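A reminder from the course coordinator: this example appears on the midterm review sheet, so study it carefully.

Given structure:
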């Protein structure tokens, strides 16, 4: 009996990594589904803006209740054009967290999907390495809709982060000023191992995306294979 118990403990511990990764893989799969659905609505994210984005952040099914208690947050994933110059294929996804601000009042208690475009290298570097307050640390604006960005304002063109929401099938630009974005270090550790930062995941091409990212990355590779930001 004494031998059986330690063996059971070893077996249980061996199963922890896979189960610990389950939430992160579900998050990535849901982000892929959200991206496909949003890029197939009639008035979706303008192609011109998607082509100039350095990174895309997808936060599936964020609930208002998540912002009632301090420390709770919406979770999602970030993928950037990989490589030190953000010019290569879309990277393995890094786990991200969205916190607080006025989000809870805007989404009205309904499950809401958010898609954020990070439009320049400064914004990408900031979000990959630290907590960023939208509207203060990074200029943010509601993203314009449609097949082109002709109706975009000067505020939109100056923004480092453009944000969109979808709730009850309604897709629209939404302001997330006052909210904070940060890398989800615990989620990244569970998925990729201790000591792997969000920037490592994006820049280091040796870090491979998990199978759960296939839909998200293939969709972005198909819809926007080349960085046209000119930066």
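Designed residues:
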């Amino acid at each position: 009996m004494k031998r059986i118990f330690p063996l059971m403990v070893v077996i249980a511990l061996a199963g922890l990594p896979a189960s610990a990764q389950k939430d992160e893989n579900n998050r990535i799969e849901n982000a892929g589904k959200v991206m496909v659905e949003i890029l197939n609505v009639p008035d979706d994210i303008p192609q011109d803006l998607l082509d100039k984005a350095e990174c895309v952040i997808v936060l599936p099914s964020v609930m208002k209740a998540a912002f009632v208690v301090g420390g709770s947050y919406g979770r999602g994933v970030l993928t950037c054009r990989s490589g030190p110059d953000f010019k290569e294929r879309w990277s393995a996804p890094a786990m991200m967290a969205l916190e607080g601000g006025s989000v809870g009042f805007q989404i009205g208690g309904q499950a809401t999907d958010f898609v954020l475009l990070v439009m320049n290298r400064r914004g990408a570097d900031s979000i990959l390495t630290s907590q960023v307050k939208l509207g203060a640390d990074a200029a943010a604006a509601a993203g314009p809709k449609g097949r082109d960005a002709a109706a975009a304002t000067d505020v939109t063109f100056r923004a480092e982060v453009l944000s969109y929401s979808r709730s009850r099938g309604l897709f629209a630009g939404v302001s997330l000023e006052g909210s904070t974005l940060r890398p989800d270090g615990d989620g990244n550790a569970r998925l990729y191992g201790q000591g792997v930062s969000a920037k490592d995941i994006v820049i280091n091409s040796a870090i491979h995306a998990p199978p759960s990212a296939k839909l998200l990355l293939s969709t972005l590779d198909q819809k926007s294979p080349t960085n046209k930001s000119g930066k």
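The longest strand covers residues 55-62. Residues 154 and 173 are 15 Å apart (CA to CA).
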